[in-house]
Specification:
Blueprint: H1 2-9, H2 12-30, H3 36-67, H4 72-96, H5 101-126
Keywords: Membrane, Transmembrane, Transmembrane helix
Transmembrane segments: 12-29, 41-61, 73-95, 101-124
Length: 130
């Protein structure tokens, strides 16, 4: 049974579904003062973006981490990931008419940037740069 749980816990589908539900729920909460269709649209959009970012962030950080040397390898990959995530989140929410763009993207951006920073640091240490 333990092997089955580990398989589910490590599954990309599990991670993307969790990101969709968690960050979509946050977007619904952040837009709760606005008409229901707008809040639900923001939630679905944020859920989809978060699921996609979850799938690609790990790969992007790994590739960026290999592209830099020295101290730049420590700060550049998470910064680039954060800027890319910010641009994607803000652009899609602005184009879709999300009422509370900053509130909607604040938590997902914090989570994705924290993940990118921690994961990049682990890669940095693994490469013996720390």
């Amino acid at each position: 049974m333990r092997g089955g749980f580990a398989r589910v816990a490590n599954s990309a589908i599990t991670h993307t579904a969790f990101a969709f539900c968690a960050m979509g729920s946050w977007a619904l909460f952040a837009n709760r003062a606005h008409p229901f269709p707008k809040a639900v649209t923001a939630a679905v959009i944020q859920g989809v973006i978060s699921a996609c970012l979850t799938l690609f962030l790990k790969t992007v950080v790994e590739r960026l981490s290999r592209s830099f040397r020295g101290l730049t390898a420590l700060w550049a990959p998470p910064l680039i990931a954060c800027l890319g995530s910010s641009a994607i989140l803000a652009t899609i929410h602005l184009l879709s008419g999300t009422p509370e763009v900053l509130k909607t993207i604040a938590i997902p951006l914090l989570v994705s940037t924290s993940y990118a920073t921690i994961y990049n640091y682990a890669l940095y240490r693994k490469r013996g740069l720390a």
